[in-house]
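cron nightly-structures :: item 1 of 1
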Amino acid sequence: VQLQASGGGVVQAGGSLRLSCAASMAFSGMDMAWYRQAPGKLRELVASITNTGDTVYAASAKGRITISRDNAKNTVDLQMDSLKPEDTAVYYCVAQETYWGQGTLVTVSS
């Protein structure tokens, strides 16, 4: 499975970004997730969504970030609102906790 993430960029604190991840094959049976890695920190889970649509969010993401999937388009999105400088990181799309995309950089300026 190849995963192509897009949508990263520079945004001011309080702003929004929508990340999108496109899979190279049908992924309706796969669990998907977004991870992130901030400079000098370990990678951490942001949000995940199972093949049946159940979601899990990191405590830091709850109420601000929403993960969704479109199995017809083989995409999984991450809508991020009320962004904070501490959300600055490289965001990775992951399938089945095994296949990782190349990452997309999100920078939130204060």
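cron nightly-structures :: done
The two ends are 36 Å apart (CA to CA).
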